[in-house]
Amino acid sequence: MYSYIYDEFVQSPKFKKELDTIESRLTDLGMSGKVVRLALFRDPSDIIAGEVSRGLSTVVAVGNDETARRVLDVVAEYPGTTFGYIPLGTPTHLARLLGIPDGVEACDVLSGRIVETIDMGVVNGKRFLAGIASAKFDARITVSGFRMRATSPGSLQVRNLAVGFVPSPELVADPRDGKLEAVLEVEERRGWNPFRKRRSGRSVLPFTHMEIDGDAPVTIVADGEEMTSDHFDISVEPKMLKVITGRGRMF
Amino acid sequence: MFKRNESNPMAGHADTVIALGVRVEGDFTSKGDVVIDGEVTGTVHTDASLRVGESARIQADVSALSAMVAGEIHGNIRVADRLDLMESSRVHGDIEAQTLSMAPGAVVNGRVSMGAMEAQPADEVEGEE
């Protein structure tokens, strides 16, 4: 049984034609289901919780990555429920990672029903699927047994899948391995000469639990949502989410 | 885990990379391949291979299945299989290895012993659990 969660923006006239095509294709594939339309003050968690209690097995987000994030955050609370995604609008980086084409072609991917059970990350109690980014990172990282710190400010990514647009599959982490990957990039000045070329280093650290402590508040972006704190607790929840993927998935 | 490392050619398929510009303090353990180009103080252990780059500065006892060292280590090295000391390597400590290869120019200040020894498994591996 399918439920389709339409984001508010896809209900605009701009997407009407495409949405009609999608609905028609879903009917042809025998996958029509209940349609729920999100509105400004309509919380998807209450809606999905109600649907799941009535035996719903697959929840499909129809919209962009932000729509997907809002829906999967709730779906992850209900083991046994599968998450699907029909990308409309932008950005749809997450869809690309999952191998789901935009628009009506996503219906065939849903129909193919290749289901992967993947990990989710948790940062200060909030789940994320793709990853975390911090552009100006200057804080201490603690993983049990050791501490790590860049000698000069750099950038940090914590990846369950990947952060933002990813040009090739080689840059995507495997979300089925029960680990997250921290990638810390730092530029190191060589000697005293300010015009001398800097050398950059990219540290990679797989982990299951990490803490970040800053002398000053640190700003991170977790799946597009900004968070600021002087302490972050990051961990992985293995095999947390069942998600429908395409053959072209990047992991 | 990454399918392969993105930028550091020396890293190869390393699971963990401590790059230049990063300082690590404490007991660093891993089950996978490790590349160190930065600074490490404490202990380093991996059940797999270890590569210590030219820019690396390690003040720690090091143990690994195999190792290639091009940087500086202040501490004892225990390698179950093969240890390669490159010409830029500087080791201030004792070395234990099954097989040792030393390039001309490599510096060792310590006792060297070679022969049969057993690999020490990591008790607990963070990041590789």
TrEMBL record, chain A:
Pfam families: DAGK_cat (PF00781). SUPFAM superfamilies: NAD kinase/diacylglycerol kinase-like. Residues 13-122 form the DAGKc domain. One of its GO terms (molecular function) is kinase activity. It comes from the Bacteria. This is DAGKc domain-containing protein. It comes from Candidatus Uhrbacteria bacterium RIFCSPHIGHO2_01_FULL_63_20.
UniProtKB/TrEMBL annotation, chain B:
InterPro entries: BacA/B. Pfam families: Bactofilin. Belongs to the bactofilin family. PANTHER family: HYPOTHETICAL CYTOSOLIC PROTEIN, POLYMER-FORMING CYTOSKELETAL PROTEIN. This is Cell shape determination protein CcmA.
